[in-house]
Amino acid sequence: MAVSTVGLGIGVALTVIAVVLHYARGTGWTANEDISQEVLEHRAETVPETDFPEPMNRSIGGGGVAAIGGGGEAGGELAEGEAEEDTSSPGDIPEDEIEYFDIEYTKEGETIEVANNETLLEAGEDEGWDLPYACRQGQCVSCAGHIDGGDSRDFVEHDNQEMLDDPELEDGYVLTCVAYPRDSFTLETNETP
Ligand code: FES
After folding, report:
1. Cα(97) to centroid of ligand 1, in Å?
2. Quick check: 146 and 180 in contact, CB under 8 A?
3. By three-state DSSP, how is residue 136 classified?
4. Helix/strand/coil (H, E, C) string of 165-192?
5. Where is the composition biased (Acidic residues) (predicted)?
6. CB neighbours (10 Å) of residue 27?
7. DSSP letter for each residue of 93-131
8. CA distances from 77 to 69, 81, 103 (A)
9. Quick one: fold of 99-189?
């Protein structure tokens, strides 16, 4: 009987303890606050501000470098192109540098003044003479003439003539449609090599 009394006492005590623990407030422990959002915000602050999303930035940066390089090359090519595209003609002479030379057209029987920015053909046509020509671009020999006195290059400057070779030029032949006078001389028109 004594054992059952002790057992009963223990049972009651355990029950009381269980009830007390049940209603106790506990240790005050609470789950950690969710700081994930805070961490994300902090990380966002450490990333430099950019105008574009990162992948786009990389893309543009890479492209930019390539473009700069390409631009440099393009600039170089352009500079070369500009040099190659120098379209200045022997007739492109400033107004204050224009000179006149006495040209004797033997077959026409006259000596006229021809400016250094005017071709022998144009000057003759301005006189009303019916001088021969076809292309007027130095691409045929229809307008050819002959200068007395030696190498025609000592007397005229041709603008891209492609028909007369060195011996013919040395003999005094000239393509009057693209020849600008640089000295006075005597010319026979309608003379082909
Ligand atoms: S007209 Fe053709 S070269 Fe002068």
Report:
1. 27
2. no
3. coil
4. CHHHHHCCEEEHHHEEECCCEEEEECCC
5. 79-95
6. 6
7. --GGG--EEEEEETTTTEEEEEETTS-HHHHHHHTT---
8. 12, 6, 43
9. Ubiquitin-like (UB roll) (3.10.20)
Exposed, middle or buried by CB within 10 Å (0-12, 13-18, 19+), for 36?
exposed
Residues 6+ apart with CB under 8 A from 1: none
pLDDT of the chain, 193 residues: tens digit per residue: 445 555 555 555 556 555 554 665 555 565 666 767 776 677 767 666 655 555 555 555 444 444 444 444 444 455 554 545 566 788 888 888 999 999 999 999 999 999 999 999 999 999 999 999 999 999 999 999 999 999 999 999 999 898 999 999 999 999 999 999 999 999 999 999 9
Supply 140's token pair.
């045929």
Establish whether residue 93 lines the binding site of ligand 1, counting it when its CB lies within 6 angstroms of any ligand atom: no
CA 124 – ligand 1 centroid, Å: 14
Atom from ligand 1 closest to the CA of residue 136:
1
162: tokens are 């492609």
- Nearest alpha-carbon partner for 148 in 171, 181, 119, 125: 171
